[in-house]
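Reviewers of the previous submission asked for a worked example of the structure-prediction workflow described in the proposal, so we include one complete record here. The input consisted solely of the amino acid sequence. No template or homolog information was supplied to the procedure at any stage.
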Amino acid sequence: MKENNITKELIFEYIDRIVDRTFAIDFTWDWPAGVAFHGVCKAWEATGKESYLERLEQWVVTYRRVGLPPFTVNACAMGHTLLTLYEGTGKQEYLDMAIEKATYLHERAVRFGDGVFQHTVSTKNDFPEQAWVDTLFMAAYFLLRMGRKLDNKAWVEDALHQYYWHEELLQDERTNLFYHGWDNIHKNHMSGIFWARGNAWAALTMAEALKLIDYTYPMFMQIDGALRDQLSTLVRLQSESGLWHTVLTDPTSYEEVSASSGIGAALIRYGHPLHREYVDRALRGVLAHIDEDGSVRDVSAGTAVMADAEAYKQVPKKRVQGWGQGLALVFLSYYGIHCIQPEE
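From that input alone, the workflow returned the following C-alpha cells.
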C-alpha cells in the first residue's frame, strides 16, 4: 500500500472495525481489557466518535454490577480507561475509581529493593522480587497520568521512580534494548531475551512520559536518553515487511503485530523526523494483518518470561488478543492525528 493512498478516512475505517471487534471479546477486569480499552480511548480522542466512549461506559457500568476483583499491579491497567472516562464524561465516580487504583499502587502494591513494583498478576506471590517491563504500561504510566491530572507530586515522583528503576534493571547498556524481566533474588535477567512486545511497552510509555513532564523534572533527560537510544536500535531491527520479530535479535522468530504497533506508536510520539519512513513501513505491515471484521492477527499470546528464545518463538499467535486490538488502535489513532496532512 502506497503512502499516498493513506487517508484519514481510511485509517478511521480501520479503527471503527477494530473497535467493533474489540467489544465482541468477553474481557474480565484485568490487563487485557486495560490495554484494549486504552486503545478505544485513543480511538475516541482521534475520531471524536462519542459512541466509543458510550460503549466503554456501558461495559464499566455492567462490570461494576458483577463486582471488581482484588487489585494487582497488572489489573491497574484498567485505570487508563477510568481516567479517560472521567475526562470525557466529567463523572466523578470514574475519577474516584481511578484514585483507588493509584492509591493502591502508591501505598499497598508489593515492592522489592528500592521500592520497585513487583510484577503481580494475582493476589499470590507469583513472581517474587521480579520486575517485568510490562509494569511500565500497566502501573507506572498510569500513576504518572494520575499524578499529573491531580497535581499529586508524590504520585508523580513514585511513577518516575519506577521508570528509573525499570530502566536501570532492564535496559541493556550495549544494545539499548530492554530485557523482558529482572530477578532480584538471583540478580539476573533470567533468559535474557529482548522481547518485542516488552520493548514496545517500554518505548511507548517512555514516549508518553515525555509528554507529561518537561525539563524541570530531573528524570526528563534520563527518560529521553533511554528512549532515544532504544529507538535508534529498534528502527535498525525492523523487517522489510515493516514489522518486528518477537525476539528482536532473532530474524528466525516470527513477526509480531502488537509489538510492531506499539513501537510504531512510540516512534510517532517521539517525533524524530528521520523516523517517518519506519513509521510508514510499520503502518503497511500492521494494516496487512487486520481482517475485514477488525481482527488484528499474528499477535502473540500472553507471554511470561520464557526459558529461552525457542520458547518465545513457540508462543502461539493464532487468537485475537486484547493487547493486539488495543495497541493497533493506539498506533492507528496516532497515525491519523499526527501523520496525515489535512487536505487543502
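The CA atoms of residues 131 and 182 lie 5 Å apart. We consider this example representative of the routine output the project will generate in years two and three.
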